[in-house]
Amino acid sequence: MKRKYGIILLWTSLGTTLFFFLFFNDRKDLHTFMITLLLSTMYSFVLGFGNGFINEYLNKKFPWSEATRTRAVLSIISIVIGNFILVYFCNFMNYVVIQKTATIEDFFSSKYGLTNWFMINIALLITTFLHAKGFMEELRKTSKKEVVEQKLIAKSANAQFESLKNQLDPHFLFNSLNVLSSLIDENPQQAQKFTASMSKIYRYVLEQKDKELVTVEDEIEFAKIYCDLLKTRFEDSVDFAFEVEKENYRNYVVPLSLQLLLENCIKHNFATSSKPLMIRIFSDGDTLCIENNLQVREQIKESSGIGLSNIVQRYSLLTKRNVFIEKSENYFKVKLPMLSDKPNAINKEPEDEYKAYKKAQKRVKEIKGFYSNLISYCIIIPFLVFINLMTGTRNHWFWYPAIGWGIALAFRALRIFGLGDSWQDKKIREIMDQQKNRNNGNI
């Protein structure tokens, strides 16, 4: 227990001592004050530390954020059983041991039943406040933690994406300048033509570098210009074939993905007039494929690994669909997912998360309402009992609101923590899983 908690209980003991000594004691002497202080301290510390220990134990074993339903049920059970035992212990010490106003037989008879019941309700009020306070604090910490985590994830993903995109400019420029430098000596006219094509390509790079996705049509047009550039250098050593269906042109792919894959084809394979490198770009269902015949060249220096890994990482930040790589003795193929959604609607998770957030918000509101109602019950019912007993009437009418309100609270607790919408959701998920498994079995 924290030291602050003990100080609070000490001040509570002193406050209740002064209250009962000044307003409920006819004798105003030191002995009476010390007896009142002893009793107040005993009730405050036994009930306070007892309930505090239960609350801390449940916080460690069943945190609100991880097991809300289980924790709520255990809290209700522990509140009732724990306070029943603690109150009976304190009252026994008060009336039988300290003040000696009752025998053991009298204490466990109906004579003290109403007193014990009244004290249990007071203790329930204090304990319910502690558990509700713990729930609110845990909810606030969890909400703040989730907000911070989501911000860090968003910043990390954005930084990672920007880092991946920034790899493209120097990578493309370096390779293009290498090609241009070799052409200047071999064929100056081709070098001029290459420079013109390179300016068009680099303009596209600058236009698309800040976009997450581009249309397949734009990427194909860009790839054709880049293939012309490669054709300028390699002439008959490289052949290209574009076989992409027109209906796929409005889909989306990661920008510059074809250019990086075309570079990989040239870099990792040798190409000659007698053994030309055949590069085919085509659509296959909802994927855009680039395939080449395998003519592996010996690598003089280790590859930078920017090309394919860059594409895979950028796709992983945008969609759950994977980039597939196929390799055999005769060919190498890469399949890029073509996305039918626009860039700002690629990921449906935010929408699902928003719905889940609204549902969670509604549930938290219901739980808060339940605890507010429970606290009100623990305040008002003991007050009604006090008024009923102080008026001296033999008709114990306080039982009617106590039982009626208590039944309503019990049903509300069952609806929130046991048999409400959560049960329906669980049943719906169970039926959907069964249907999904049945469908998978028929495939």
TrEMBL record:
A Gene Ontology cellular-component term: membrane
Transmembrane segments: 7-24, 30-51, 72-97, 117-136, 370-391, 397-417
Residue ranges of every copy of the 2TM domain listed in the record: 358-433
Keywords of the record: Kinase, Membrane, Transferase, Transmembrane, Transmembrane helix
Pfam families in the cross-refs: 2TM, His_kinase
Segments forming domain Signal transduction histidine kinase internal region: 159-237
Molecular function per GO: phosphorelay sensor kinase activity
InterPro entries in the record: 2TM_dom, Bact_2-comp_sensor_kinase, MFS_trans_sf, Sig_transdc_His_kin_internal
Name of this chain's protein: Histidine kinase
